[in-house]
Design brief:
Number of strands: 40
Radius of gyration: 46 Å
Structural class: alpha+beta
Shape: elongated
Distance between the termini: 119 Å
Strand content: 35-45%
Length: 555
């Protein structure tokens, strides 16, 4: 302990001294003095140093340790795993014992390990976390900073496509958005495949380059030509947690796909409310289904809102605005953006894109089945000239003719009030696309015809071969047989128990299926049990086809 003393020489006029302080004085003569002798020197700085050290020893636990969390992103999502790491910031980690708390309540004492790895977190794990390090030898306790942790439910994804109605061959951009935004995600991109067992669901096939996911939240499709559906999914962490799949978004194509086509009757894009529609599917499949994506994006099949008759869907009076198309397990048809209008006038326009260089006529139709003559036509809300007697002729169309068209009556017939139609998009396709479609059809027809001819030639060859073989066998047997045996042969039956020649009405195909035994295999008169007779195709009540036959033989 350092000491210092105060010496006072006080005149009689000083009335009171307390604790070394002069509290009251009446007068002090200039000859009198107060001498204060303080023996301090550098010792004063020593006292201040010890005082500061004592404060640090008593209060040094505040903010001395450091807590951080891995992975270091916010928010975390349910099912993710998190690791808390407590750094004592002095010596070796094994010199300390550690404990961790949430919201000022200790939840674990972790011994000498400065890491605590949680199991899958839930929303109840949200809060403020802190760690405390206790030195094993000296009385040293250090508290860390507080770290706020937020746990949310796994986010859902929103997929957008742009453009949704591209021209054939254009690029399309898929964008997958995580909400709310957060870090660390990899994105997986899928093309949808219809599930035949469930008409309202799709499975997915990963797009090229998407096996391990992409860091970018967008994906570019090059050369899009046909209608197709797409989806996305995101994942992050180790082990990886995945978001639910996004909803299916479609890229539409109005161009006719020869392998799959949709036909709309009446043949126009706009229809009156209460009007019955017929939608038919044609192409390389026997199991088509007509689909609709309504204005809210909800996708459903004809069985939910119409009557299915094989590959045709009839809507009766329940048609709704939306995009309609056909699909099978492997094919998707052109799409038609059909508008159901409650007004009294509709625009009559082509269901399919118009080939560049060709002509097209637009009309304006009344609900009363009469053509509305005194009308104006608009493209992208701009009035067009040259409307004649309720029709607009567009000759030698080009890409510049693409746009939204509508018509409006200039005068209102009695009883009709709403004389403005809805808008419909007029699409123009490249002549090369039309030519390629025509070539595809020609090649398809030629291929089918060639295949049928090849099968017929093969059957004729087999028939001729078997006739010559049977004839040669009969001549050989007649040479070596007795007259009695020869008489039996003349009755039409060979010694091996099989017919040597075809009976009237038989075909080479049936004999080929039955086959014949070689002479060294014996002459068993009983046919093998694997041979079927009276084969026929029977249609069941469910519409499927099954192979039926009578099994000839024992048992």
């Amino acid at each position: 302990m350092y000491l210092f003393s105060l010496h006072f020489h006080i005149s009689p006029h000083v009335s009171h001294v307390s604790n070394g302080l002069l509290t009251r004085s009446r007068s002090v003569s200039h000859k009198q003095s107060v001498r204060v002798d303080v023996r301090m020197g550098h010792t004063l700085f020593g006292v201040l140093g010890l005082f500061s050290l004592n404060i640090l020893l008593d209060c040094g636990h505040a903010q001395d340790a450091l807590l951080h969390i891995e992975p270091n992103w916010s928010p975390l999502f349910t099912e993710e795993k998190v690791t808390f790491i407590c750094d004592s910031r002095e010596g070796n980690d094994t010199d300390w014992n550690y404990s961790f708390s949430r919201n000022d309540g200790f939840f674990t004492t972790n011994g000498t390990s400065n890491r605590y790895k949680s199991s899958s977190v839930t929303t109840e794990d949200s809060g403020e976390y802190q760690c405390v390090a206790h030195h094993k030898i000296r009385p040293d306790r250090r508290e860390s900073n507080k770290v706020s942790l937020t746990v949310s439910n796994v986010p859902r994804l929103v997929l957008t496509v742009s453009p949704s109605w591209p021209s054939p061959g254009d690029s399309v951009t898929l964008t997958c958005t995580v909400g709310p935004p957060s870090a660390g995600w990899r994105f997986f991109w899928l093309k949808t495949v219809p599930q035949q067992s469930n008409t309202n669901y799709y499975s997915g096939e990963l797009l090229p380059g998407s096996t391990t996911g992409t860091e970018q939240d967008s994906y570019i499709l090059h050369g899009q030509t046909h209608t197709a559906g797409y989806g996305c999914r995101a994942g992050r962490g180790d082990p990886v947690i995945y978001t639910p799949y996004s909803g299916v978004k479609f890229v539409w194509s109005g161009g006719v796909n020869p392998a799959a086509s949709l036909t709309v009757s009446p043949q126009r894009l706009q229809h009156f409310s209460g009007e019955s529609l017929s939608l038919s599917c044609e192409g390389n499949s026997t199991e088509w289904r007509v689909m609709r994506a309504d204005e809210d994006g909800f996708v459903s099949s004809c069985s939910s809102w119409g009557r299915v008759n094989r590959s045709t869907c009839n809507t009766d009076d329940r048609a709704r605005s939306g995009v309609y198309w056909c699909e099978s397990a492997t094919q998707t048809s052109n799409a038609a953006n059909i508008t159901i209008h409650s007004g009294d006038v509709i625009l009559v326009s082509s269901v399919h894109p118009v080939t560049e260089g060709h002509s097209v006529t637009l009309g304006c139709k009344l609900r009363t089945e009469n053509l509305l003559y005194n009308v104006d036509f608009y493209k992208n809300d701009q009035l067009l000239p040259n409307g004649v007697r309720g029709e607009l002729l567009l000759s030698a169309v080009t890409k510049s003719h693409e746009g939204f068209y509508k018509c409006r009556g200039r005068t209102s017939p009695r009883g009709l009030d709403t004389l403005t139609s809805a808008e419909s998009w007029l699409s123009v396709k490249d002549p090369e696309e039309a030519a390629s479609s025509f070539v595809f059809v020609v090649l398809l027809v030629v291929g089918l015809v060639s295949g049928v001819l090849l099968i017929i030639l093969l059957l004729l060859f087999l028939c001729r071969y078997r006739r010559s073989k049977a004839s040669g066998l009969s001549r050989s047997q007649r040479t070596n047989q007795s007259p009695a045996t020869d008489h039996m042969t003349n009755q039409g039956q060979a010694p091996d128990g099989h017919y040597a020649s075809l009976l009237p009405g038989d075909s080479c195909l049936y004999e080929t299926i039955g086959g014949s035994e070689e002479p060294e295999q014996g002459t068993n008169d009983e046919p093998e049990t694997s041979v079927y007779q009276n084969v026929k195709m029977e249609t069941t009540a469910e519409g499927g086809k099954h192979l039926h036959g009578q099994n000839q033989g024992n048992g």
